[in-house]
Amino acid sequence: MGSKNKLKRFRENETFSNVLQPERNALTSSQFTLKGKWKTDYFKNDRPIVLELGCGKGEYTVHLAENNPKKNYIGIDIKGARFWRGAKTALEKGLDNVAFLRTQIELIISCFAEHEVDEIWITFPDPQIKYKRSKHRLTHPEFLKMYKEILKQEGVIHLKTDSEFLFGYTLGMVANRGEILYAHHDIYHNSTAPEVATGVQTFYEKQFLDQGKAITYMQFKL
After folding, report:
1. How far apart are CA 50 and CA 149, in angstroms?
2. How many domains, the chain?
3. In what helix (H) or strand (E) does residue 218 lie, and over which residues does it extend?
4. DSSP codes, 113-153
5. Which helix (H) or strand (E) element contains residue 171?
6. Catalytic member of 41, 46, 96, 126
7. Summary mean pLDDT of the chain
8. Does any domain span residue 141?
9. pTM, 2 dp
10. Structural domain of 92
11. For residue 120, which of 54, 192, 166 has the smallest C-alpha distance?
12. Structural domain ending residue among the three candidates 76, 102, 128
């Protein structure tokens, strides 16, 4: 994407009512006013809150919001030019149960209060295969600890990835910390795969499938 295109999207994001772009120092100094108040001050209802971490173009966030109007969805990514597409689509479709938050995932507990979130989706994150970068994996114990803090006690986490490595790594991480509700290493060749996992394919997922890669999926609690 050219720099002109990026700048155009950044400017458009600033005009979108469903995009929030807090300053990093506001988050690190506990000045983010929506923390603990997403239902009352933003969505203005008491429906469950679902996050998509590293939401990319926002396909999953928008699809889930369309199909589950009784839940509120927040796509989170640091790359605003990427989720611009999802934010624009949500506005065009009149979806009032969708928001996009531009921030880093490691600041998530500065954005949400304890037990404020009902579900988390992690879709096609970078598997960070190099050992020294394992702390950046979105299912590293440090991240799982954060998710547990903001999730309700029965809150569910979904992981969908083309990486067998990350799938196996996460199974290991969850084994001692929670409960696996469902796991399969090739959901498009498994008749028991839940529709919520197969009902939409992201831009990157279609590329992986075209390359003949299997798509893995799991649901778990912490």
Report:
1. 14
2. 2
3. strand 216-221
4. -TT-EEEEEEES-----SGGGGGGSTTSHHHHHHHHHHEEE
5. helix 164-175
6. 126
7. 93
8. yes
9. 0.93
10. 1-30+42-102
11. 54
12. 102
Q: In whole angstroms, what is the distance from residue 78 CA to residue 83 CA?
A: 9
Q: Which of 221, 207, 199, 168 is nearest to 63 (CA)?
A: 199
CATH of the domain at 205: 3.40.50.150
Strands 72-77 and 98-102: parallel
- How far is the C-alpha of 39 from the C-alpha of 187, rounded, in Å? 33
| 39 token code pair | 């239902």
DSSP codes of every residue in 56-101: TT-HHHHHHHHH-TTSEEEEEES-HHHHHHHHHHHHHTT-TTEEEE
Phi/psi class of residue 75: alpha, beta or left (left: φ > 0; alpha: ψ in -120 to 50)?
beta
Kindly report, residue by residue over 50-63, the tens digit of the pLDDT. 999 999 999 999 99
| Residue range 98-139, pLDDT digits in tens | 999 999 999 999 999 999 999 999 999 988 877 667 888 999
Residue 124, both tokens: 């096609």
Is 46 tagged catalytic?
Answer: no
Q: Which residue type sits at 95?
A: L
Residue 48 to residue 117: CA distance in whole angstroms: 7
